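Example 9 (inverse folding). The structure is encoded as follows.
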């Protein structure tokens, strides 16, 4: 395929071992080469087979995932299981993913930026993507023994605090991304991939969302609908001003894993498919306004943003005041309503869990906007 890497920098390509594009193409020989090259097994050990269990079957949109429980020739069991992630086989969804550079972004993140946040993201054993065909394969650490976050349940204050500290590492490591050649490839909030596409999408589905989810959208937001739609280019322009960082881009509770045992890390973030360059607090605004229930956000919002800002400073950011952080946070909360509107407007009928997810995001987001008087920021 295209860009290939394993966990360690500059390891040799897996010569004479064709890279699989789906699970059915994976061979014990190829997986043995991967595990040996990434240092997980010794040269005299081999993978003889595996038991595959689909993850999220019928739910995943842009990727096909499976847990592989590995079998070895030796009596040892160095890596009992891993997660295999491939580009989705559905042609329509794959086209969407390619258009958004989803696969390229995830592979580039694991190859170049995962080290910046260390244990806060899954370990990658292998990553490869072909930008032309859309073929992608990732072999990731198995975290199924961890506790998965549930957006519909809502995020606790302590969960939000640990998540904000983790993402502050990424933001600090990529601070002033707007002036860095090493981050020039990544899409920006004001670029065509986001600004144009999101604006069109919101305009196309806004009325449908307001009608289908009327009980979960605050009347003040409905009334300001035309102003909000017209303001999207301006909101993106504002989000592109000032210090920029590479953000996670989909920082919500469903993409978090929490350790449940003494040998687990406390927190791991998943799904690095949407990083963009924008104000760092985009991740903060999205998390607090749509993953926390209303009362938790109201009582702890200022404290959590304060803790996030302190973490940024602790990780080396020296030119960003708390006052600017709070102002940017409010703008991000308003901007992130766009995502809830688009997800709601494109939700497939009959997706009960998806509907509950959308209901919670819309209701929380709209209430945060009203509580913070953010409609006053609209032109």
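The amino acid assigned to each position is listed next.
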């Amino acid at each position: 395929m295209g860009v290939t890497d394993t966990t360690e920098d500059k390891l040799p390509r897996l010569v004479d071992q064709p890279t699989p594009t789906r699970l059915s193409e994976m061979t014990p020989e190829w997986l043995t080469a991967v595990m040996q090259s990434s240092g997980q097994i010794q040269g005299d050990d081999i993978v003889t087979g595996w038991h595959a269990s689909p993850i999220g079957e019928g739910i995943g949109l842009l990727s096909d995932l499976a847990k592989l429980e590995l079998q070895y020739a030796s009596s040892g069991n160095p890596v009992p299981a891993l997660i295999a992630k491939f580009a989705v086989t559905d042609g329509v969804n794959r086209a969407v993913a390619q258009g958004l550079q989803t696969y390229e972004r995830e592979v580039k993140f694991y190859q170049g930026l995962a080290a910046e946040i260390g244990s806060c993201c899954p370990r990658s054993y292998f990553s490869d993507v072909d930008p032309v065909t859309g073929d992608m394969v990732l072999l990731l650490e198995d975290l199924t023994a961890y506790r998965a976050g549930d957006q519909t349940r809502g995020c606790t204050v302590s969960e939000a605090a640990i998540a904000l500290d983790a993402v502050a590492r990424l933001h600090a490591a990529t601070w002033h991304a707007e002036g860095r050649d090493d981050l020039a490839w990544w899409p920006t909030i004001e670029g065509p991939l986001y600004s144009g596409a999101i604006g069109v999408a919101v305009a196309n589905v806004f009325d449908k969302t307001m009608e289908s989810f009327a009980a979960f959208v605050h009347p003040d937001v409905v009334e300001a609908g035309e102003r909000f739609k017209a303001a999207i280019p301006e909101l993106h322009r504002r989000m592109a001003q000032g210090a920029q960082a590479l953000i996670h881009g989909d920082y919500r509770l469903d993409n978090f894993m929490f350790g449940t045992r003494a040998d687990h890390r406390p927190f791991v973030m998943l799904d690095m498919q949407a990083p963009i360059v924008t104000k760092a607090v985009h991740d903060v605004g999205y998390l607090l306004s749509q993953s926390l229930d209303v009362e938790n956000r109201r009582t702890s919002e200022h404290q959590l943003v304060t803790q996030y800002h302190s973490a940024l400073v602790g990780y080396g950011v020296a030119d960003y005041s708390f006052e600017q952080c709070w102002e940017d946070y409010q703008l991000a909360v308003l901007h992130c309503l766009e995502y809830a509107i688009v997800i709601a407007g494109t939700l497939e009928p009959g997706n009960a869990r998806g509907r509950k997810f959308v209901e919670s995001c819309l209701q929380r987001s709209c209430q945060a906007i009203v509580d913070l008087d953010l409609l006053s920021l609209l032109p």
